[in-house]
Every structure is written in structure tokens, then in C-alpha cells.
Amino acid sequence: MSESTTGSTARPAAGQSAADRLAGDLADVAREEMQTVRTEFVEAARPAASGVILLGAAAGCAVLGIGAASATVLRILESFLPRKLAVAGLTAGYFTGAAVLGTVGLQQLREAGGSSQRLAEEIQEAVSGTVSRIRQAGAAAARDVHNG
Length: 148
Description:
Distance between the termini: 80 Å
Protein name: Putative superfamily III holin-X
Helix content: over 70%
Oligomer: single chain
Radius of gyration: 28 Å
InterPro entries: Phage_holin_3_6 (IPR009937)
Pfam families: Phage_holin_3_6
Keywords: Membrane, Transmembrane, Transmembrane helix
Transmembrane segments: 48-73, 85-106
Shape: rod-shaped
């Protein structure tokens, strides 16, 4: 760093023009500010990182729930439950995992504040709308199974 950014009054180097000194001082100030912004960004992102990771894990659980691709567990359940009930139970288990992980992830995003908090609110609204549609479809499917 140059002497001028630290507050001392060192003599300029011989042959260095005022414009060169000013340019050097401005570059030093810009570097210091960039380092400060970088540090603040890292500090702000750190609490949000675990929330984002948990949301990713929640998304993975949701994919498993939608697909209900765990054939081994499904076959075990089918050994003592009717097939439709076994599929419903497995799917409910995956969605429960997604809900728990997603709730914890959203809470961490809210605690991070700022743009992370706004992101958490947007995700919460999107998930609420999706859950509402899933509940309606599930209720209709259950009525169909029960009635026929």
C-alpha cells in the first residue's frame, strides 16, 4: 500500500508526477475497498451457505418422493400392505424428509437476513402454492381409490 493511504506524509519519489501519485493512491484505495467488499460478501454468504445446502438436500428428497423409486423399500412394504398403501406411505416419507430439511434450510436463510431472507420468503410462497396443489390432487386420488 502507498504511504498516503495509511495517513503518513512521506515524500513522493523523485521524478513522480502528482498525477502518478494520485493514480497510485486511488488504486490503493480501490484495492482496499475491494478487499473490504470481498470480506463483507464472504461473511454475509457464510450463514446462507448451509441454508442453501439444506434446500438442495430438500429438493433431492422431493425428487425421491415424486419418483418413489426405492423399489426395495416398496417391495418390503408391499409384503404386508396393499400396493397402493405401500406407495403412498413411501411417498409420504420422502415428502416428510423434504419438508423437514426445507423448513430448517428456510429458517437459516431467514436468519442470514438481507437478500437471503427475501429468497427464503419467495421460496416459502412457491412451496406453499405447490403443496396446496399436491394436497388437492392427493385428496382427489384418495377419493377415487375409496370410491372405486
